[in-house]
Known about the structure:
- The protein has three domains: about 1-85, no CATH class; about 100-185, no CATH class; about 195-225.
- Helices cover about 60% and strands about 0% of the residues.
- It is flat, with a radius of gyration of 27 Å.
- By secondary structure, it is an all-alpha fold.
Amino acid sequence: MRGIGIELGLACGTARRFAHAESPEELLVNNRTGYRRSILDDYKPYLHQRWNEGHTNATRLFEEIQKRGFRGSEKIVRAYLHSFRTTAHIHKPPPKPPAVRRVTAWIMTNPGSTDSDDQTSLDAILSVSPELASLVGHVREFAAIMGERRGRDLERWMAAVNSDDHPALHSFVRGLRRDQDAVTAGFTLPWSSGTVEGHVNRIKMLTRQMFGRPKPDLLRKRILLSD
């Protein structure tokens, strides 16, 4: 019964979201950060600027941002501007939180290759989240071990991860331990199976081109002629 109640609650929440949406676009703006993004967000700085310059006609402002690409309704603009009429000076809107995918890209990028503005934004996030800062440290240390072929440090890295409260990394470490010898060798030795994998992939492609039914002699000729 509890599970049914949860499902009904989620269904009701979804129904309310669809019922209250001003436009189809408003249903596509949640970026999974806990912040419900509005389709008006990109145009708020412009609206603030124009309002502070003395342009307070909602219809006129709606037409102006329409020319800038806004696809929502005038009702959304009017509702947003309504609170401005009781305030002498409208401050700039707070910056939008970055999308999770964008922050993940910052974390996975080599710090030496990260744009300075992106690095500043990431540093600001890490300064208020010690847990995320610790996670980033582990991720970047793993990248260094892999890139510098320091397989000897893999065990130390896994022990450090297990001592922290990072469930996702714990799962990753368990996967590494299932094939630890091979992983350590891959992080230590200069050889790899990349060339072999490339040839295997090419043979599979040729087989698919012949509908998966080539005879050995024909397949051999195709492989030799494709070099």
